From TrEMBL:
This is OLC1v1022456C1. Signal peptide: none annotated. Residues 79-239 form the CRAL-TRIO domain. SUPFAM superfamilies: CRAL/TRIO domain, CRAL/TRIO N-terminal domain. It comes from Oldenlandia corymbosa var. corymbosa. It comes from the Eukaryota.
Amino acid sequence: MVLVTEDMIRQFQSMMEQIDEPLKRTFQNVHQGNPTETLVRFLKARDGNVAKAYKMLMDCLNWRITSEIDSILAKPIIPRDLYRGLRDSNLIGMSGYSKEGLPVIAIGVGLSTFDQASVHYYVQSHIQLNEYRDRVILPAASKKYGRHISTCIKVLDMTGLKLSALNHIKLMTVISTIDDLNYPEKTETYFIVNAPYIFSACWKVVRPLLQERTRKKVQVLSGNGKDELLKIMDYASLPHFCKREGSGSSKYSRNGTVDNCFSLDHSFHQQLYNYTIEQARLLERNVPIKQGSFHVDFPEPDPEDAKIAKTIESEFQKLGNQNGVCNSFRNVRINAD
């Protein structure tokens, strides 16, 4: 893993001092009072190459300006039933904090259907979650735990995973690319739980192709991962799909929506959604909130990632033929944000 030196940081800082004022303003929303730590993230994402890290950050800041990312938290998805549909079909939420204060983000990979709205709504919702995490959740965690916290933990539930899930690969690739290029190094560890055979077979192909820093972040746990996860978080912060015994849906829990961090009725999503409504009212006083998706520019995947994806496609084609199952894979990538 790359060692970021003081010389790298100073060189990067000197380059950032020369940027235009609009870029400086949006950079403030990115670093949230911690510019040095942000520069380190981008340096890590480009293996310590200052010139490449600078270009990456400039591309990110220009994307934010062009796509008006700074105001995306004032663009609520309405009506509320539409947002509920997004939550029911894109299973993601926050279940609590680790013992070190890192937010625990739960993702229901296997049972997400992405079939309730256009791609633009799913992308808008995903970016809003990223921005709310970076602008609200992480600063609050830093204050509560008395130290700078800039990363989260992700627990990925593979319950129900089928090869046909890759019908959603276009959307998954868009979201993954946005995270890779604009929110690098935001995840401390990925924990994989409830992994069926299909994941294990695919993981053997994917793992050697990942960059070392990404491989080190991924841990595949046995079963629902409860015993291992309890070493780093309290029971209350476990995602609901890690609390149940045996197999079952990651969508629901015995306690209904109270414990289901994917649901709009969960406190995290209630707070996030209400936050966007309030920000919209502050931004546009006495103006009705309009319905409509928030379109952003979709960046092109990194050439190296495209090369990796082509290799994965070929290997997955072989796997599909061997198992007599769907073999229409087009592109797969592990998000290394």
